[in-house]
Write a structure and sequence with these properties.
The chain has 21 helices and nine strands.
Length: 614
């Protein structure tokens, strides 16, 4: 039987190419896109098209899923026109270009890139995820959209799952075999292959072999319509004597917790949401598997379960609602809690769909409502991100008004004083407000900086309140005049650094400097970075950046260290075009730099970037 199944693979694979030609071609395009991305994301490559790489990262797989869905829909409608493929493909191509080039390019360049970068990244990820989720669910729902029952859907679903499992096993076996063959060849002939070779073998198996094998196992739509859903005796026995008891015990466990909650008035904790969510997914899967029992004549045991289990879940989902209300009451609104509340609402919808007999195609409603909720909470003005930002900014404006501030943006001194005063308070509301401000400041939220022009690395957030340091010191009438200085430079993580000529090695650096590791002298800033020579950094660009030693110290502190001392004047740091700081034998490429001298006793420096060594 196994041998006969393998003998059928060549004809099945060739039929997959004929049946899904565009999806098959996109599978190979995905492989080449992954290879291109890998080859052109090294730090020693000068690229002007990072957005093109982002587009290559999101376009091919989604295009393959959309093409597959379109082919299956056309097959169900017996439509051989090329127009639907052209329309769906062009629509996703245009949308992907807008996501990768439009959102991350035009808007960001017209406004402040740093202020909008996190917001744009969120909408880029959310929109892409929505397309992927919709396209994946479309494979199973769209071909059976006009059906009046779920018979064909159920057969198609489980034959697809079988095809996925078989394709995954065969792909894993092929991947292990080929990589073992390459490794053995290198060991026998004393040739060390670059690690990219193993990556490319994985890419080919995962992005080309696996989809083609899966396509070859997808059942014909007409075949699904001609069969009747049925569970074999093994599946029926396993469900009745294994999975159903587990679900029943879980329900009893949750009911016992509800009784404890009522008797002791012990409000549900946050973990309850995770347990209920996992339980609901288990129940959804079990009820879906038991679909053939709906068609069985008579009032069987399994048919009763299809009504009992969804109804029994209502108190559990209600308990999840109580827990969420408590968390929101205690800690306020956040994007994560809005997501959890949306999932909670979705669970009520699932239960209602299962309990309403008039709804015959239950999977269709469950999938469509899921996509609709996903769209609302990710890509609309009612998104969790937008709502949480509005609520947070509203609480910050109220606190500013209570503190007597009416003109915005505040000066940096006033902004720091406002934050430090809140940090000195010991009440929960103040702590919550400070945590919100810190998150908004770290994200460079444009609305927040319109009120408080400080970053998450600012002294107001990072200083030790136990020390006698306060931004008010500089305003004291008894103190000597002090020339305060602050500058922040930041470029997106995907911004390309220019590699200096003569570079032989590179090390990633991300370090908060101690006071003895840097100093301000007049108009210049001097800081030191030391590298351990015995840590494996051999000035080879392929070496791990783990050889960076973030502890800087004076030159000559240890014979095993190379110390690079960088000096830069304040005027240079204030220029928007500053990307590099040079010294003898090294150049530091800036990703992020925040330098501040608040007073003679208060100074901060943090840098993140690449240290290029000669």
């Amino acid at each position: 039987m196994v041998l006969d199944a393998f003998k059928k693979y060549p004809s099945q694979i060739s039929s997959a190419f004929r049946r899904f030609p565009i999806a098959s071609a996109l599978a190979f395009f995905t492989f080449f896109a992954l290879v291109y991305n890998t080859e052109h994301t090294e730090i020693f490559e000068r690229l002007a098209g990072m957005r093109f790489l982002a587009w290559l990262g999101i376009y091919p797989v989604a295009a393959m899923l959309i093409s597959l869905t379109t082919s299956l829909v056309q097959e169900s409608l017996k439509n051989e026109s090329k127009l639907p493929q052209a329309i769906s493909g062009a629509a996703w191509l245009a949308l992907s270009i807008i996501l990768a080039f439009g959102i991350t390019s035009s808007v960001a360049m017209q406004f402040s890139l740093l202020a909008h970068y996190s917001t744009l990244t969120y909408y880029f990820i959310a929109s892409t995820a929505l397309v992927y989720v919709t396209a994946t669910l479309g494979i199973f729902i769209a071909p059976f959209w006009k059906n009046k029952d779920e018979n064909a859907f159920w057969i198609f679903l489980f034959k697809n799952l079988k095809a996925l499992v078989v394709a995954a096993l065969v792909t894993a076996l092929l991947l292990a075999s080929v990589e073992a063959l390459v490794f053995c060849f290198g060991a026998l002939f004393e040739h060390e292959f670059d690690e990219k070779v193993y990556f490319y073998i994985f890419y080919f198996c995962a992005s080309a072999v696996f989809p083609i094998l899966y396509f070859s196992g997808i059942p014909a739509i007409e075949e699904c319509h001609s069969e009747t859903p049925a569970l074999n005796k093994f599946a029926t026995s396993t469900i009745r004597f294994l999975f159903v008891p587990v679900l029943s015990l879980a329900i009893l466990l949750f009911y016992a917790y509800i009784v404890k909650f009522i008797v002791l008035w012990d409000m549900p904790q946050g973990m309850v949401s995770y347990f209920v969510s996992g339980f609901m997914l288990y129940m959804l899967a079990l009820v879906t598997i038991l679909y053939p029992t709906r068609l069985a004549p008579g009032n069987t045991f399994e048919k009763k379960l299809l009504k009992v289990f969804p109804a029994a879940c209502i108190p559990l989902v209600a308990m999840m609602s109580v827990g969420l209300i408590r968390r929101i009451s205690d800690y306020g609104i956040s994007a994560e809690r809005i997501y959890a509340a949306t999932i909670n609402i979705y669970f009520y919808v699932i239960i209602a769909v299962f309990l309403i007999d008039k709804i015959k195609c239950k999977s269709r409603y469950i999938a469509v409502i899921f996509c609709a909720l996903f769209f609302v909470i990710t890509d609309t003005p009612l998104s969790a991100y937008s709502i949480s930002q509005r609520v947070w900014m509203g609480s910050i404006r109220e606190a500013l008004a209570e503190a007597g501030y009416t003109e915005f943006p505040l000066s940096k001194d006033d902004a720091r004083k406002f934050v430090i005063d809140l940090r000195k308070k010991d009440d929960e509301n103040s702590k919550l407000l400070v945590s919100r401000m810190l998150e908004l400041a770290e994200a460079h939220n444009p609305e927040f900086t319109g009120y408080l022009p400080i970053t998450g690395y600012d002294y107001a957030f990072t200083n030790d309140l136990a020390e006698d340091e306060c931004c008010e010191d500089s305003d004291s009438t008894d103190a000597e005049p002090f020339d305060q200085f602050e500058v922040s430079i930041e470029y997106p993580d995907k911004a390309v650094l220019q590699v200096p000529r003569g570079t032989k090695g590179a090390v990633a650096i991300d370090h908060y400097f101690n006071n003895d590791e840097f100093e301000f002298a007049g108009d210049t800033l001097t800081f030191r970075i030391s590298l351990k020579e015995d840590s494996g950094c051999s000035c080879n660009s392929d070496e791990s950046d783990a050889c960076a030693d973030s502890t800087a110290g004076p030159a000559g502190e240890s014979a095993t260290r190379t110390v690079y001392s960088f000096t830069v004047d304040r005027q240079t740091l204030k220029q928007d075009s500053t990307r590099q700081i040079k010294t003898d034998g090294a150049t530091f490429g800036i990703k992020y730099l925040h330098a501040e001298e608040e007073s003679k006793s208060s100074k901060t420096l943090r840098i993140r970037g690449i240290l290029f060594t000669e």
